[in-house]
Automatic annotation (TrEMBL):
Taxonomic lineage of the native organism: Eukaryota, Viridiplantae, Streptophyta, Embryophyta, Tracheophyta
PANTHER family, alphabetized: TRAFFICKING PROTEIN PARTICLE COMPLEX SUBUNIT 13 (PTHR13134:SF3)
One GO CC annotation: TRAPPIII protein complex
Chain ranges of the Trafficking protein particle complex subunit 13 middle domain: 1-92
Pfam families, sorted: TRAPPC13_C (PF23643), TRAPPC13_M (PF23647)
Superkingdom, natural source: Eukaryota
Naturally occurring in which organism (per UniProt): Cuscuta campestris
Domain Trafficking protein particle complex subunit 13 C-terminal: 112-203
InterPro entries (alphabetical): TRAPPC13 (IPR010378), TRAPPC13_C (IPR055428), TRAPPC13_M (IPR055429)
Name by which UniProt lists this protein: Uncharacterized protein
Length: 214
């Protein structure tokens, strides 16, 4: 066995991890992967190859558009006992399908201290992950739970209106919330309705908070 190379797809950058890399010394899992024997001979033997894949800057945009899950190919070269060269290239190696939602919702700013039954503001960021204009939107908190069971509710107007969002762009907004239960709670149930496409997005966001008595 002369060499084993991993040729990443254009969306990825590959780094081979070696047992003598200083930053791997404390990684028990990697040390187990590189346990001897490490030489492949005609009589047998084992050599483990470990590659770390990172999404390339150019690949980030392509994956959002195409949803490709091709990782790359392995190229193996060797020599026979008589010194004749051999070469094998595998078919495309596929990873788990990469699924990107049309929109992504995240919390940008949350108060460090949240007090029971006192309103607080959370700043959100809504990102359009498609190549088309989305919106305008209506943002609401789902009423799937009864008011007695819901630990965090909207304080004031129940619907927030957002303008359309350009492709691969984002928009920020605030929600005025109030916690009606103490201790560890979760902000859930935020739904976003695209008025143009008549499409509802839910289960986009879940955030654990701690609610103080005072």
């Amino acid at each position: 066995m002369d060499q084993v190379d991993f040729e990443p797809a254009q969306n990825w950058v590959a780094t081979v991890l070696r047992p003598d890399d200083h930053h791997l010394e404390d990684n028990l899992l990697v040390r187990e992967l590189f346990k001897p024997p490490v030489i492949i001979r005609s009589g047998g033997g084992v050599h483990n190859f470990l590659y770390q894949l990172r999404l390339s800057p150019e690949g980030s945009h392509l994956l959002k558009v195409e949803g490709s899950n091709v990782l790359g190919k392995l190229q193996i070269t060797w020599r026979t006992n008589l010194g004749e060269p051999g070469r094998l290239q595998t078919q495309n190696i596929l990873g788990s399908p990469i699924v990107h939602k049309d929109i992504e919702l995240g919390a940008v700013e949350v108060p460090p201290v949240i007090i029971f039954e006192k309103p607080f503001l959370v700043r959100f960021n809504l990102t359009n992950q498609t190549d088309r204009i989305l919106g305008p939107f209506e943002v609401q908190m789902s009423q799937s739970e009864s008011l007695d069971e819901k630990p965090v509710m909207v304080n004031g107007l129940q619907t927030t209106f957002l303008p359309h969002v350009e492709p691969f762009n984002s928009s920020e907004f605030h929600l005025d919330l109030i916690a009606v239960k103490q201790g560890i709670q979760k902000i859930t149930g935020i739904t976003i309705f695209d008025k143009h496409e008549k499409k509802t997005y839910d289960s986009l966001f879940e955030l654990e908070i701690f609610v103080y008595a005072e």
